[in-house]
Design brief:
26% of the residues lie in helices and 28% in strands. The protein is α/β, with parallel strands linked by helices and 323 residues long. It folds into 2 domains: 2-124 and 293-322, Quinone Oxidoreductase, Chain A, domain 1 (Alpha-Beta Complex); 127-265, Rossmann fold, CATH 3.40.50.720. The chain is globular. It holds the Pfam family ADH_N.
Length: 323
C-alpha cells in the first residue's frame, strides 16, 4: 500500500484527501517510480476546480515528479535510477505525482544524475520544460535580443529571466508591486516596469520600436497590451494564465495584433524536453549558475495547504511537496 493525495471531486482545496491506495501495477512500456518530490502547478488548480476537460474524479493529480525507479519491466532503467517525469496525461488521463508511487509511460520519463536535495530537484521538471520550451521552441530567442517578461515575479518568470540572461538577452520584467523591483533586479532583470495594465507606453519610452520578444505569463487580461510591445516581426508567446481567465470575450485580430507582429502560444509537452537538456540544466543549478526560486516546501500530508498557498497568489516562487 502507499499514501496518495486523491482529489475526490471538483471543488476547493479540501476536496483533496490523503488516502491509502494499492501501489500501482506496472505494465509493459511503463515504469514504476518511487516519488521523492513534485511541484505544484497552476494547471493543477484548474483541474481540481473542475476546469480541465475530460478529467474524471476521483483522481491522483500531479503533472510532474522526481524520484527513483522502483520497477521497469523493459529493463531500460535499473532500480534506483534517478528520474523526472512530466506531462503526457499525468494527473489527468491517469494518476500522477501526488503520491508515494506512480506508474508512468516510459515516453515521459527522463533519467538524470544529481547530488541536489530532492526538494530542489522537485522544482525543476515542469518549470524548466515550460521556460525552455517558451524561449527556445516558441520564441526562438537569440543572443543580443530583447525580452519582455509579463509576470516577472512568478516562478516561471523568475527562471525565464535567469535563463534568458544565460543566453545573452536583455530582459525587461514586470511586476504589479513596486516593492518587488529590487527582487527582479537581483534576479538579473535589466529593467523593471510596474504593471498597471498599460506596460506598452512605459516600454516604448525605453525601446521606441518595441522589443524582439514578449513572454506573456499573465494571459488574456494583458495580452492586447503585450502585443503593442513588440517591434515589427517581433513575437509574443502566451505561456501563462496567471490572470485566471481562459477565454477572451472580444478580440479583433486586424486591430489587436499590430501589423507584422506575431502571436503564438506554448502549452508544453514532454517531447520538448530531452535527457541532455534536463541534465545540462541540473548541472547549471548544481554549479550555482542558475538559482531556483522556491517559495515553500510541504509534506504530502499538507498538500491542501500547498494548494491554498498557490490559490492565494502569495507564494512568490515555486511550491514543492516532498513525499
Amino acid at each position: 500500500m502507499m499514501k496518495a493525495a486523491v482529489t475526490t471531486k471538483a471543488g476547493k482545496p479540501n476536496v483533496i484527501q490523503i488516502q491509502e491506495k494499492p501501489i500501482p501495477a506496472v505494465q509493459n512500456g511503463w515504469v514504476l517510480i518511487k516519488i521523492k518530490a513534485f511541484g505544484i502547478n497552476r494547471s493543477e488548480i484548474f483541474t481540481r476546480q473542475g476546469d480541465s476537460p475530460n478529467v474524471k474524479f476521483p483522481r491522483v493529480q500531479g503533472i510532474e515528479c522526481v524520484g527513483e525507479v522502483e520497477n521497469d519491466p523493459s529493463g531500460t532503467y535499473k532500480k534506483g535510477q534517478k528520474v523526472a517525469a512530466i506531462m503526457g496525461g499525468m494527473g489527468r488521463d491517469f494518476d500522477g505525482g501526488y503520491a508515494e508511487y506512480a506508474a508512468l509511460p516510459l515516453a515521459i520519463v527522463f533519467p538524470f544524475e544529481s547530488k541536489l536535495p530532492w526538494e530542489t530537484l522537485g522544482a525543476i521538471p515542469e518549470m524548466f520544460q515550460t521556460v525552455s520550451g517558451s524561449l527556445n521552441e516558441a520564441l526562438e530567442v537569440k543572443k543580443g535580443e530583447t525580452l519582455l517578461i509579463r509576470g516577472g515575479t512568478s516562478s516561471i518568470g523568475m527562471l525565464a529571466c535567469q535563463l534568458a540572461k544565460h543566453y545573452g538577452l536583455t530582459v525587461i520584467a514586470t511586476t504589479r508591486n513596486a516593492d518587488k523591483e529590487a527582487l527582479l533586479k537581483s534576479n538579473g532583470a535589466d529593467h523593471v516596469l510596474v504593471d498597471d495594465g498599460d506596460i506598452s507606453s512605459k516600454l516604448k519610452s525605453i525601446y521606441p520600436q518595441g522589443v524582439d520578444n514578449v513572454l506573456e505569463l499573465i494571459g488574456i487580461t494583458t495580452l492586447k497590451d503585450s502585443l503593442k510591445c513588440v517591434r515589427p516581426r517581433g513575437v509574443v508567446c502566451m505561456t501563462g494564465i496567471l490572470g485566471g481567465q481562459w477565454t477572451m470575450k472580444e478580440f479583433t485580430p486586424m486591430g489587436d495584433i499590430p501589423s507584422l507582429a506575431r502571436l503564438t502560444v506554448y502549452m508544453g509537452d514532454a517531447a520538448n524536453l530531452s535527457d541532455t537538456l534536463l541534465q545540462d540544466f541540473i548541472n547549471a543549478v548544481e554549479a550555482g549558475e542558475i538559482s531556483l526560486n522556491i517559495s515553500k516546501v510541504f509534506k504530502l500530508d499538507d498538500i491542501v495547504k500547498a494548494h491554498e498557498l498557490m490559490e492565494s497568489n502569495q507564494a512568490g516562487g515555486k511550491i514543492v511537496v516532498v513525499s
